[in-house]
Design brief:
The chain is mainly beta. The chain has helices at residues 12-20, 312-317, and strands at residues 2-9, 44-54, 60-69, 73-75, 94-98, 138-142, 150-160, 165-167, 182-188, 191-201, 204-211, 217-225, 231-242, 245-256, 263-270, 281-286, 289-294, 300-307, 319-321.
Length: 322
């Protein structure tokens, strides 16, 4: 939403009260009389012009000109079933190993087509960011979840669109109990990413990424995803509403044909409302190897992985609008 608003303020107290009223859904970062407001609390960014003028009568006008206001989706961090279907038992087996432990992305042009990425992850385009050089090429992945449809899948990465480079965040701690969520801050590409990860409830793993700027990024994973050629793949949509916004949940199912347990559901929700108008991820295959990558996003993304069961109702109940 783009708008211009002019507000008459007669004294500093009026200004404080105005900024503290979240119903106005506007804010400023700095001004001449020392008032500040963390506008991220209100879901606001990209003020193209913020001017505070004070005249000799101690009256002021706030000009919010061409202010782009974001309303974002976030997780409620639910850790109970809430009366909804949840996942199945998971053998929590996340590991840390080099990014090419399962496959070599540079040799997998079908998984990383140039139509999606200029070049796949490789030594020359993977940055250390805030990691040590010793850990630069290491990544987080799952082994099997005990008889799931995948084997050695994950190798989760962030791709910085502007620089064309990759960063592999290392989740720590890993394999925590259900209901234990961990928040980590990662610094890479001269940007800061906050990731909340963990098993919210049995059989549902969440990765929630927030970034402190408006620059584009992509989040991806890859590895072996298939059941020796007898896999079943489906993509789904589910209409839902948050506040006054009518939205669509996009998610997918990877399963072994005829098996009622080896099923992985993946739900991808961009944080920015306007980025939910089309399927937010792309999937590529080479035999039983599979790569999933989000489309170019800003502000962040929430991804849920669920074993065996379609947990869309639990997922939707975990979302809120800020």
């Amino acid at each position: 939403m783009v708008y211009t608003s002019t507000v008459n303020i007669t004294n500093q107290s009026d200004l404080v009260n105005f900024l503290n009223d979240s119903s106005h859904r506007i804010g400023i970062v700095e001004n001449d009389i020392g008032i500040s407001k963390n506008n991220s609390v209100l879901g606001i960014d990209n003020f193209f012009s913020k001017i505070l003028k004070t005249d000799n009568t101690n009256s002021a006008k706030l000009y919010f000109m061409n202010a782009e206001v974001y309303n974002l989706i976030r997780s409620k961090n639910n850790i109970t079933d809430g009366g909804f279907q949840i996942g199945n038992y998971v053998d929590k087996d996340m590991n840390i190993d080099v990014f090419d432990y399962e496959l070599t992305p540079a040799d997998e042009s079908d998984l990383f087509p140039t139509s999606e990425l200029p070049s796949p992850p490789q030594d020359s385009n993977i940055i250390a960011g805030d990691k040590s050089e010793e850990n630069r090429l290491n990544s987080s992945y799952w082994n099997d979840w005990e008889d799931d449809v995948f084997d050695d899948w994950g190798f989760f990465y962030i791709y910085d669109t502007n620089s064309g480079t990759y960063y592999f965040p290392l989740f720590d701690p890993i394999n925590e109990n259900d209901g234990v969520l961990t928040t980590q801050v990662f610094n890479a590409f001269n940007r800061q990413f906050t990731i909340i990860h963990g098993y919210c409830v049995e059989g549902i793993f969440k990765i929630e990424i927030s970034v402190n700027d408006d620059l584009p990024f992509r989040f991806g994973a890859y590895g072996n995803m298939g059941s020796d050629g007898d896999e079943v793949v489906e993509n789904f949509t589910q209409a839902y509403s948050l506040g006054s916004n009518n939205l669509t949940l996009y998610y997918r199912k990877d399963a072994e044909d005829g098996d009622d347990t080896e099923i992985l559901y993946t739900y991808v929700i961009p944080k920015k409302i306007s980025e939910n108008d089309t399927q937010p991820y792309v999937v590529n295959y080479n035999g039983t190897d599979m790569s999933l990558i989000t489309r170019e996003l800003t502000r962040g993304v929430i991804i849920y992985f669920a074993k065996t069961n379609d947990v869309k109702d639990w997922v939707l109940n975990d979302l809120e609008f800020v």
